[in-house]
Amino acid sequence: MPDFFRVLFASLLLAGAALLPSLALAHTGTSVAGGFLSGFSHPILGWDHVLAMVAVGLWGAFLGAPAMWLLPVVFPLVMAFGAVLGIVGVPVPAVETGIAASAIVLGLLIAFAARPPLWIAAIIVGAFAIFHGHAHGTELPDAANSFAYAVGFVIATGLLHLVGIGFGLPVKKPAGRIAVRAAGGIISMVGFGFLLGLA
Hints:
- The protein has helices at about 1-25, 30-45, 45-65, 65-90, 95-110, 120-140, 145-170, 175-195.
- By secondary structure, it is mostly helical.
- It has one domain (about 30-195).
- Helix 3 packs antiparallel against helix 8 (about 175-195), helix 4 (about 65-90) runs antiparallel to helix 7 (about 145-170) and helix 5 packs antiparallel against helix 6.
């Protein structure tokens, strides 16, 4: 089964890599391709977003099925809702603090091997997704196609979740479990760095 996930992960990365050059050459402005490319690159170019989204996949892999699949579905769905709030101008307080806190909290949950009930894990992930989505929505480029932009950042988010799941798959082995928990600790420390303006 892990071989299947590795093949799936590699296939998704290759598909994304094959898609990017054609999008980069496409017309920008209000075009679908320009909006998609802007949205796709936005989460990947922000390390605070990358850490939190990888952490969601990593925690899901640590918790095992069905959390491994549910959490990476909950996050983008709620994030899209947060993006709508940002696009239409609904204020969400302390967005940057919430984004940094997401890395801190998710990292600590992994480091301390927290295993809450699935519904609580989903609420935690969903709450942080609102901050990430709002940040994406408020930073929507004026020239971008908003729907294509949203599709782009949701797909990029899903790929980052898959990266976390991929790193978390060895968790069933003792050494893998230690490595995953150590990764959670590192994510949390970097999150503190973002919170304090050090990273």
